[in-house]
Write a structure and sequence with these properties.
With 313 residues, this protein is of the alpha/beta class. The protein is built from 10 helices and 8 strands. It has an 8-stranded parallel β-barrel, surrounded by 6 helices. Helix 1 crosses helix 2, helix 2 runs parallel beside helix 3 and helix 9 runs parallel beside helix 10. The structure holds pterin-6-yl-methyl-monophosphate (PMM).
Length: 313
């Protein structure tokens, strides 16, 4: 598929079978408020832990983004630099070369796009290409000029907790009380942003599962979603295919491979939704949407719209 296939946009021009109608929201304000949202992951990288190298070519990345859009993703999160421990640094200009054409094409097709970047220059280029959300995993080590950009553009900003960088974060997974320390550190970074003029409503917080966290830290933070919500922001949760799920599903001491972690991801995403998460960030959009429907029915049976469905097994 070439970029030339994109004009016209929408399911009719897709090379893929249409699974669900494209969502009608055109911007973040129009996104549904009565259910947990699904953010589909699109890593245009060489070395992400689960899909590195699969979508490095622009056309492959666009095709995968469209597949997730037509599968029902509310937001497509496009990143061009791997954030896994030990990953190589990518120059912002190279990062932009990877993701800007992909973002432009997905926006043209009607997607609401977030940009997964730690670089202010890349965030700016992505917004100029039509992205509507900045997803910054740099946490405590964010670039100094990021708050000014977020204040200027008035876009939602995902403030994720992370200590250190790709090279150092594993060694920084030391906490006496992980929930209290993550909450405190998020508050500190938040004040840098609000002091720069960012409105509190722009900020979405994320505990940063796997970023300077071991499995026990991740489970503690998942259990603390209600406490994270007391910070007064929307909460985003990213468990998808992460190492702690591989460890949970290990057999004979061998972690389950990333591609076999989607059912566990759907379960954690449903539980996060039931605990009040605003959005879950996942690779498997279709499975997650089904799991979130179960969570919604569980927490609010009246929301199912199945009142008139026949009884029976
Ligand atoms: N995890 C990854 C990348 N970006 N962004 C947010 N907000 N939260 C996360 O948990 C998160 C993220 C790493 O996962 P990937 O390599 O599969 O994208």
């Amino acid at each position: 598929m070439s970029l030339g296939a994109i004009p016209g946009t929408g399911p009719a021009t897709s090379p893929l079978p249409v699974i669900r109608p494209v969502k009608s929201a055109k911007n973040v304000a129009q996104l549904p408020k009565d259910r947990t949202l699904v953010m589909g992951i699109l890593n245009v990288t060489q070395d992400s832990f689960s899909d590195g190298g699969k979508y490095l070519k622009t056309d492959d990345a666009i095709q995968h983004g469209l597949r997730m859009l037509y599968a029902g993703a509310d937001i497509i999160d496009v990143g061009g630099e791997s954030t896994r421990p030990g990953a190589d640094y990518v120059e912002p200009s190279a990062e932009q070369g990877r993701i800007v054409p992909v973002i432009a094409a997905l926006v043209k097709a009607g997607a609401i796009v977030s940009v997964d970047t730690m670089h202010t220059a890349t965030a700016r280029a992505a917004l100029d290409a039509g992205a509507q959300i900045i997803n910054d995993v740099s946490g405590l080590t964010h670039e100094a000029d990021m708050p000014a950009l977020v204040a200027e553009r008035k876009v939602p900003y995902v403030l994720m907790h992370r200590r250190g960088d790709q090279q150092t974060m594993v060694a920084e997974a030391n906490y006496d009380d992980v929930v209290a320390e993550v909450v405190d550190e998020l508050k500190t970074v938040r004040s840098t942003f609000t002091d720069a003029g960012v409105a509190p409503e722009q900020i979405v917080i994320d505990p940063g599962l796997g970023f300077a966290k071991d499995p026990a830290h991740n489970w503690a933070l998942l259990q603390a979603i209600p406490e994270l919500k007391t910070l007064g922001h929307k909460v985003l949760i990213g468990t998808s295919r992460k190492r702690f799920l591989g460890a949970l599903l290990a057999e004979a001491g061998k972690p389950a491979p990333p591609a076999e972690r989607d059912v566990a991801t759907a379960a954690t995403s449903a539980l996060a939704a039931a605990a009040g998460a605003w959005c879950v960030r996942v690779h498997d959009v279709e499975g997650t949407l089904d799991a979130l429907k179960v969570a919604a029915a569980w927490t609010n049976p009246a929301s199912t719209g199945t009142k008139s469905a026949p009884a029976g097994t």
